Amino acid sequence: MSTGQLTRLVAALSTLDEGVDDAEWVDRIRALEELKAAAAAAQAQVTTQLVASQRAAQAAAGVAAADLGTGVAAQVGLAKRESPARARRYLGWAQILVGELPHTFTALRCGQTTEWRALLVARETGWLSAEHRAAVDAALGPRLAALGDRQVEAEAKRAAYRLDPHGYLARTRGKHADRRVSIRPAPDAMARLTGFLPVAQAVAAYANLQAHADSLISSGDPRGRGQIMADTLVQRLTGQTSAAAVPATINLVMSDHTLFNRRNPSSDGRPGDAQPGGDEPAHLHGYGPIPADLARRLVADAPAGTPIWLRRLYTHPDSGQLVAMDSQRRRFDHGLRTFLVLRDQTCRTPWCDAPIRHADHVVAAAAGGPTSADNGQGLCQACNHAKQAPGWSATPTPAGSGHQVVTTTTPTGHRYHSRAPDPPGTTPAHITAPAASLAEQRLRQLLLAA
């Protein structure tokens, strides 16, 4: 089946007949589920074929054996519209599934199981020898149609442990190297600070926080146990006596209307009366959008003695995009690096939400690319390394255009466009809003590093 036929199949799914009874609706749900599974099997198969072809092309181009495959996962991620990190995991599991788990792959291709359950088998057997992996596949593959997600994971783990208990324990010990701390946004302007730790350390830390909370509660502390544990965690990590007195630097970007709770200007540039101002969300670096009132409170309620630095960032009068001065430096240092991080917010690769680690030249400095905001982008480490592989190129929009768009071309000739996010206070093109005066547009963005 050609790509054109696949495209027509996708289009045909939007024109299914609707005049059917409920039994037909149920039958269609099952048929579409089987179609998804078959499509997932086909996708895994073509992914492995792409990997083999790209590795062969790189070898022919003289790439060192240790570097073969560089950038392939990034291409897969762009095609699947997901992050490179997820694409790397998928690529590894897909190769195991297609090449070494024939019974599991057959169950997926016939629509008897889901893509996730098939990948679970690949994930949980990836550390086994080929012989042991084949044994698990032969025992588990024919049973997948009757098993749920947790059952598949448990059965695969159990079978793998029976075949190689020493290898299983060694794999568990190896996970210690993956310990880390991460932060993710949560509803209502909250966040989840997560520590991925060895189980003994995690249990000990949690038990210590519990014991401390119980001690304070018995002494009459009015806070709940969870509140005390959360406050104690912040205090011990920051070294402060109060969770509210944390002097760490945060980067908060908001418009001047949000900061001063000013009214929105009217269409002729004069102060408006119809709409209350200052309600445009701000952007907290490392978290995301936060309500305007919370942003103002982060500034107003800063502990006594905590410095608040106000830095003005100007926007383009036509596009509303952040603009900055060029630098004569070879590296993105100091203010220019900070500007790129705050403008781009996360890695600029499409569908990659990883934190920015590298300030990157879109056109390499060695190729004459300037060290400027127009030729700069924030990338995660993996994406920056991927674009160094043979066949990758990137170009920015012309300097001064207002909208910084980077066009990335992959070795297969596919092009992907990445535009810097709209800063707070900028109304998206599809939303109608009163036009601000030229002076207001030029002074719209204020960055608070408190």
Portion of residues in beta strands equals 5-15%
Q: How is the biggest beta sheet arranged?
A: 5 strands, antiparallel
Number of strands: 12
- Rg is 27 Å
Shape: globular
Alpha-carbon distance between the two ends: 58 Å
| Average pLDDT over all residues | 81
Helix content: 40-55%
Output the number of helix runs: 16
Uncertain spans: 266-276, 325-329, 429-450
Category by helix and strand content? alpha+beta
Query: H/E order of the elements?
Result: HHHHHHHHHEEHHEHEEHEHEEHEEEHE
In what order do the strands lie side by side in the largest sheet?
Answer: 5-4-3-12-6
Description:
This protein is of the alpha+beta class. Helices cover 44% and strands 13% of the residues. The strands form 4 sheets. It has a 5-stranded antiparallel β-sheet with strand order 5-4-3-12-6. The radius of gyration is 27 Å and the shape is globular.
Spell out the key features of this protein.
disordered C terminus; three-stranded antiparallel sheet; 13% strand; 450 residues; alpha+beta; 16 helices; five-stranded antiparallel sheet
Topology record:
Elements: H1 3-12, H2 22-60, H3 72-80, H4 84-100, H5 102-109, H6 115-125, H7 130-140, H8 149-163, H9 165-174, E1 180-186, E2 190-196, H10 199-218, H11 225-238, E3 251-255, H12 256-260, E4 282-284, E5 288-290, H13 292-300, E6 309-313, H14 334-344, E7 358-361, E8 376-379, H15 381-386, E9 393-396, E10 405-409, E11 415-419, H16 438-442, E12 445-449
Antiparallel strand pairs: 1-2, 3-4, 3-12, 4-5, 6-12, 7-8, 9-10, 10-11
